[in-house]
Amino acid sequence: MSAEYLVNGSVAVITLNNPPVNGLGLETRAATADGIRKALADDAVKAIVLTGAGKAFSGGADIKEFNSPKAMTEPTLGTLINIVEASTKPVVAAIHSVAMGGGLELALGCNYRVAMPGAQIALPEVKLGLLPGAGGTQRLPRVLGLEMALNMVVSGTPVMSEKLAKTALFDEVFAADADLLTSAIAFAGKVADVRPLPRVRDRKVDYPNHEAFLQFSRNTVKAMAGPFPAPLECVETVAAAVTMKFEDGLNFERQRFMHLIQTPESKSLRHAFFAERVASKVPDVPADTPTRDIKKAAVIGAGTMGGGIAMNFVNAGIPVVLLETRQEALDKGIATIRKNYENTMKKGKLTPEKFEQRVGLISGTLAYADIADADIVVEAVFEDMGVKETVFKQLDAVMKPGAILASNTSTLDVNKIADFTSRPQDVVGTHFFSPANVMKLLEIVRGAKTGKDVLATTLALSKKLRKTGVVSGVCDGFIGNRMIEQYSRQAGFLLEEGCLPEQVDKAVEKFGFAMGPFRMGDLAGNDIGWYIRKRRYVESPEITYSKTADLLCEMGRFGQKTGAGWYDYKAGDRKAYASSDVNDMIVKHSADIGVERRKISDQEIVERLVYSLVNEGARILEEGIAMRASDIDMVYLTGYGFPVFRGGPMFYADTVGLANVLAAMQKYAKGRHGDAWAPAPLMVKLAGEGKGFNG
Predict the structure, then answer these.
(1) With 442 labelled, which of 34, 170, 536, 597 sits at a CA distance of 20 to 30 A?
(2) Can you tell me the distance from the alpha carbon of 130 to that of 132, in angstroms, rounded to the nearest whole number?
(3) How far is CA 411 from the centre of its chain?
(4) Which residues are catalytic?
(5) What is the spatial distance between Cα 226 and Cα 646, in angstroms, rounded to a whole number?
(6) Rounded to 5 degrees, what are φ and ψ at 4?
(7) b or e along 57-85 (b: 16 or more beta carbons within 10 Å of the residue's beta carbon)?
(8) What is the C-alpha to C-alpha distance for residues 380 and 395, in angstroms, rounded to an integer?
(9) Residue pLDDT, tens place only, 128-176
(10) Which is nearest to 443 in space by CA: 651, 639, 642?
């Protein structure tokens, strides 16, 4: 049932019941409208209470219905709010836990609103590239005032109900120990005979010199909105609450909502929203799969990666033991973690109490025996199979039965690592991204023998660590690094053919990447790629690479950590400065290999880099390494700085049209290193059918 109806004395109670957050889908809207009509037809009913079952009043509209016939099927959310607002009997919204988006808009259509403290109140549509489309921009300023309402609509940030207790949004915020429904029914009884019925739409927005404030807001928001149109549209629709009659403002809001819902930015943000939620669903691992308790963790290696991984556990309240081979390295690792927390505390983002609590959860050891009782151990040692073998054989010998043995490998064969142990079912890849305590992505690598309970536990753990867990099968580089290798190859070829690092980086950063390939290499360390290429030269001699990156490393230019990489760096300054030495090396190398340098457009740079990702992503899908195209998009949105307003590489390719992507690839296949552009059969198939990767 999507909305329940019962009568308590002279008060009808309509309870939204559409788990998990009482989304206002068509069935729920229809049942709620029926409940209002039933209450109006019953002479014994004097007032109506509208509330939500379970964990929310309402989380808002059902986003899955957007751009579908259901969204426009009556009663729409706007129609439901009109039915509530036109009621001849008082309607009281009884709010707890969450009232967001359409849920808050529905409450604003009620005559009265009461709430429990701790309820999150928000209009978060801007985070999906939209604006409130059911009167939120017109009604909220009428109860909160122009400034507070504008801030809430433009930011989408939740505000706790108790902070809004003295505004006209709430008629009463009950005590924390009150029973919401009992209190709401009592309140409804008190106001049952009050006439005229108060309506938010009848209130005025009074803000002296609103023109100056609105212009200031436009200027501020425009400077901060970047490529997203929604924030500025939010300002304009909230402005309409002051400058237009109520009905005109509603119509204007609806027009702007319908415009935004068709923009590529909103489509990309909505794609990312759903992609994140579906990433944790594995078809052959049911939602009720038992998980293992993770109450204590261990991390092997106290370097940059190991320390960052340890901080994730500590931040989630899980004690962690760091294991190192030398006391000096262990002391340095723990000191670095402590310093990181001290810096966070200095910025006011961590209280002294929380600082002590987190530091207190970290301990160190040089002995494997001291981590034997950990529920999970994450290996974060050097990316070398021989080193991994030594570590996992020792872990197999000492770890308790049922412990999860995880490897932070970024490229190596997790099946081979699992076979170093007598319990391959307990082995899983957990590829964190640097800096591990900041980056959202966690690539969870499922080995051939990884237990379903281990996979379910690791996915649940990723949420506890506030990571976006994406499952990958086993292959060299998994999803992210396998694709980035093709991207890096194209970046190198572009240097040989006529580009310099600065031009390539600027082109893709203008496209929206957080960082271009050469700045990214300098940040991560160019020696890491060099090590991988050396392995490739032996294992896959048929794959060609530009020698420019090897020549760079032979110059000792490993990146920011050495003060010199593709760019020059100054002490204490992370800004990248063009290097004449590097540029001279690149130009000389082109001459040495007999390539006549040419002028290359930014469009070619972007297409070659992005489409190389897309083509390899298609192969990954074909091979079943990724379960779905949206998983690949999540990897790139959360781990590689792909622009969120473009939705990820696979979604972006869908937006461009796979036939157009294929045509561009065929053009580049006629150029130098054209063999790199052999199209994935899946791409050819989908393009021929006029389909996309995401359905």
Answers:
(1) 536
(2) 7
(3) 23
(4) 105, 125
(5) 13
(6) -105, 150
(7) bbbbbbbebbeeeebeeebbbbebbbbbb
(8) 13
(9) 999 999 999 999 999 999 999 999 999 999 999 999 999 999 999 999 9
(10) 639
Dist. CA 338–CA 214, nearest whole Å = 45
CA–CA separation, 675 and 237 (whole Å): 52
Q: Check the CA dihedral 404-405-410-413 and report its sign.
A: negative
Q: Which residues pair with 49 in a beta bridge?
A: 13, 92
Task: Give the tokens for residue 234.
Answer: 């939010």
Rg (CA), the chain: 29
Q: Please, are residues 57 and 51 in contact by the beta-carbon 8 Å criterion?
A: yes
Distance from the first to the final alpha carbon of the chain: 30
Cβ pair 566, 557 in contact under 8 A: yes
Q: How far apart are CA 377 and CA 396, in angstroms?
A: 11
Q: Tokens for 332?
A: 């340095």
DSSP one-letter code for 13: E
Asked, as a colleague might, if the bond just before 517 is cis with ω within 30 of 0, I would say no
Rounded CA separation 663/665 (Å):
5
Specify the 3-state DSSP secondary structure of 121. strand
Instruction: Give the closest residue to 398 by CA, choosing from 382, 377, 424, 419.
Output: 377
How many angstroms separate the CA atoms of 173 and 121, rounded?
A: 13
Q: Assess contact for 76 and 34: CB atoms under 8 A.
A: no
The Cα–Cα gap between 56 and 103 comes to 9
Instruction: Record the tokens describing residue 675, joined without a space.
Output: 């063999």
Alpha-carbon distances of 189 from 186, 193, 593, rounded to whole Å? 5, 8, 87
Task: From residue 551, give the alpha-carbon distance in Å to each of 203, 492, 546, 597.
Answer: 71, 12, 10, 18
Determine phi and psi for 577, rounding to 5 degrees. Answer: -110, 135
List C-alpha distances in Å: 170 to 82, 112, 161, 196, 606. Answer: 20, 7, 8, 18, 51
The values of phi and psi at residue 473, to 5°, are: -80, 180
Q: pLDDT tens-digit profile of 388-431?
A: 999 999 999 999 999 999 999 998 999 999 999 999 999 999 99
Q: Determine contact, residues 98/293, Cβ cutoff 8 Å.
A: no
What tokens does 585 get? 């090396």
Phi-psi region of 647 (alpha: psi -120 to 50; beta: other; left: phi over 0): left
Which amino acid, one-letter code, is at 316? A
What pLDDT sits at residue 573?
85
pLDDT tens readout for residues 448-474: 999 999 999 999 999 999 999 999 999
CB 403 within 8 A of CB 433: no
Question: Pick from 130, 123, 129, 187: which is nearest to 156 by CA?
Answer: 123
Residues in the chain: 695
Average pLDDT over the chain reads 96
